[in-house]
Amino acid sequence: MTDLEFNSLVDKHGKKVYNLAFRITGSREDAEDIAQETFLQIFNCYDKFRRESDIFTWIYKITFNCALKYKSKLTKEYVESLDEKIELLKDDIPEEVRSWYSTPEQDAYIGELLKEIRHGCMHFLSFILPENQRIVYVMRNVLDFSHKEISDIIGLDENVIKVRLNRARNSLLQYFSKRCQWITKDSTCSCKSRIGFALAYDPEILKRVKAHAHDVGIVSSRELESTYSANIDELYQKFPELEYWGSNSIKKS
What we know:
The chain is an all-alpha fold. It folds into 2 domains: about 5-70 and about 245-250, Rna Polymerase Sigma Factor, Chain: A (Orthogonal Bundle), CATH 1.10.1740.10; about 75-235, no CATH class. It has helices at about 5-25, 30-45, 55-70, 75-80, 80-90, 95-100, 105-125, 130-140, 145-155, 160-175, 195-200, 205-210, 220-225, 230-235.
């Protein structure tokens, strides 16, 4: 495999490889290591690739198997204890963020911040699912793999995939019911109550919010809070893909 071919492969599949690794492990650092390991295997073994399967399947099967070697840092017990951490940090909001509420022109910042928190919260809470259900659920609804692609990658019959998806969907909907403003209108839980925790856990959020402030699709906090969906799949399908640096991030050594 030439460097040009390799770079083209990484640039084409790197983002999805990285996002699959992240959704399985819950760790950006692990996802970077997994992407590195995946593409090193591809580079070293490409000449031995028998083409008995599609190269797409081959790449993501390697990613999947690499990711399974990295034990997730997130557990059901950790996720279920989040309420205590959220309560402890709920008032720990930077003055800069507090000022956004009094400036109508900066209301879009709040909207973007709430979107970030929603995605982060739902990512965390997916870890309440058994791992075999969570993996197929995020592959289908977050990463948009087809049933057949999931079946080929993880080596399970499509009917088994569909059963796991249905069980995962029902479990998530049951868990979120009455707990989340995006699922139930009269829920007491709002993303605003999680701002302090979110900023403490991921300080980079503010940078991302400011970077997206002038995006065409940005919405105000009032617009965002007036929307909800009883369809849990639709909410997960709106997750943004994380950025990946492509072939420049891979060290072939």
